[in-house]
Amino acid sequence: MNKYRLYLFLQGLTVILVLGLFRSIPERQLAGLIAGIVFLSVSAGICIYEFRFGQSFRSLTFWGTLSFLLFSGLPLFFLRIVNWGVPFEMIQWGPFSGPQLHTISNVIFLIMLLAIFVDSLKARFQKESEK
What we know:
The chain has one domain. Helices cover about 80% and strands about 5% of the residues. The chain has helices at about 5-25, 30-55, 60-80, 100-130, and strands at about 90-95, 95. Strand 1 (about 90-95) and strand 2 form a beta hairpin. The radius of gyration is 16 Å and the shape is elongated. The two termini are about 15 Å apart.
């Protein structure tokens, strides 16, 4: 298993964990806070690992996770904290509501997963061509 498949596995586990959090924690704000911490931790871990041990600036995984963190994970996390006590559906940032921002975040997350998948394919084909 190459490291990119491990990254995809970890992100898949993250999604399952987050879904479980929202089902098991009745206080949605607390569930959202914990979910944000989990998403940020896993994505930051992958990004840092790629920066330190990968080909960082040539890695789609590095750029995908960095983009997710900067344009989705961190902004949504801080928006939740700054608006603590306000239902997520009522949060507004510019022309976007909380649910609209979450939809955008989902798209950015999927793009990050696609970047990791492409790096996984590149690593696989590179390994096969070395044989």
